[in-house]
Structures are given as structure tokens and as C-alpha cells.
Amino acid sequence: MTAALASFLVFVGFAGLFGGAVARRRLAGVTVPGGWPLWWGVGAGLILAGVVLGVGTTLAVLGFTAPGDVLAYLTATGPGRAALTTLLGTALLLAAGVGGWPERPSLGVTGLGAAITVWGIAGQGHGADHGLLVRLAHALHTGAMALWVGGVAALWGGRLRDWPGAARAFTPLAVVGVVMLTVSGLCMGLEHAGPISQWPREPYGRLVLVKVAVSAAALYAATRVRRHLSRRERPRGELLLELTLLVLVLGLTAVLVNSDPGQHGETGTSRRASPLVASPALEARHPAPLKNLLVRRP
């Protein structure tokens, strides 16, 4: 469960950092308690904590805690490079948010940082094991979740000058996020859990179905929020329910990306050997234990 916790921290942090940055630009005049720099700083801190927890747990389980081992893991394995990529993108996003740059350069760096970050996040867990297109689906899924969660969090907890106007401004982003989540989620589900008819037969597939059900509940909660667009007072209760369900979706996603897909994942041609076993640098430093140990992904 430590790996799932690490992924969950990264997902929540990215939603706060990237989703918050988009919400600030899209929802005119919205502010958050403590200010946006604090919001973004907390998001970046959660990403850092998740990456450190994931990498540290993997290396601690193996007993590879020497500085040379850490460096070899981060530079010579797929998950290690993905962790560095995630941190690089996070640094760019944070710099774009707090740097005080002109609008266009800031927007460009935000887009670049978001793209780098989601690509790094998608390179850890199942996204790294099934080819370029599936990793792209994982990246799109992560970005779409961040847009939706970050926007709803800003609508619920932020200070709004015009609730109906802010909600209408967020609606196009929410629609894009839902479409991206549906398409990328279907692609990921078919790849990792096999045909939909098989999903109820495997624990992994059943967990996918639970995630689909919770996502549908969050979408229904969003429709209830839209019923209040004609009122001046925002529906904090409905927004809190939607946000709670979306955070639960993030948690389920974190569990899924670190779970064994079962028979489909084991027999599919896309399943690969441990990334640590495939690292010559670590094999040279620790030849004996690596030959007999199947390393779990961080």
C-alpha cells in the first residue's frame, strides 16, 4: 500500500499545482485561502513527498541505500528516470506560478511543465509497461483528473466574485476533462484488464468497475451543482460531495496503477521484466540479489 500512497500524493499534488494554475487563469478573480503561491507550494511538496516515498520504499526493500545505488536507480531505470522527469516538470510548473513572469511566457512554461510532469507520472506503474500509446493514455488521464479536481477545489474553497460566472467558465474545462478521462480510461482498462466482459471476473477488473461507478457518481454530483447556476449563492454542499468523490477516484487510480492486473497482465505480451533487473548499473553493483528477486514497481 505504500506505493499506492506515494502515487496518491503525487496525483493530489499535481491536481493542486496544475489544476490550481488553470483554475486561476480560467476563473477570473478567484483567490484561495493563503494565496495561490501557498496552494502551488503545497501541491509541489506533495509531489516531492510522493516521489521520494515511492523511490525510497523500493530501494529500502532491496537494501540499496548507498548514494551510488540511488543514482544508478534514478538514471539507469525506467521508473527512476520517470521520477526525475516528474520532479523536473514540477519545478517548471512551480516556477511559472510564483515567478511573476509576463502572461505569455508563464503560460508557455506552465504547459511545458504540465506535459513533462504527466509524462513522468505516466512512466511509473503500469503506464511504463505497455508501450507509447498506453503511456500517453495514462498521461492524458492524469492531466484530465488534475483539471477536474483542481477546478472543483477552487470553486469550493476559493473566494469568488461571481459564482455563476466562475462555474460557467469552468464548465468547458470540466467537459474536456470528462471526455479525456472516458477515452483514456477505456483504453487503459482494455489494455490492463482485457475485454470489458472479463472485468467482473478478476480483482483488478472489479476495482476498475468500482472506479467507474465512483466517477459516474462524481459526474452526477456535478450535474446537481449546475442546477444552482441561476442562484447567487454557490452550493458548497454539492461541491464538497463532488470534490470528495473525485479525491476517492484519485485514490482508486493510485491503487490501480500499483496493482497486479491479474491473468491478463501476466499473460499479455506487454509484461516486462523488472526495471531494476534490466539495469546494468545496478546488476554490476548487486549481481546476486538481483538475479533472484522480482522487484515491484515503485
TrEMBL record:
TM annotation in the entry: 39-62, 82-101, 136-157, 169-192, 204-223, 239-257
Location(s) in or outside the cell: Cell membrane
Sequence ranges assigned to domain Copper resistance protein D in this UniProt record: 166-256
Record-linked InterPro entries: CopC/D, Cu-R_CopD_dom
Main location: membrane
Entry keyword set: Cell membrane, Membrane, Transmembrane, Transmembrane helix
Membrane topology: Multi-pass membrane protein
The keyword Transferase appears for this protein: no
Protein name: Copper resistance protein D domain-containing protein
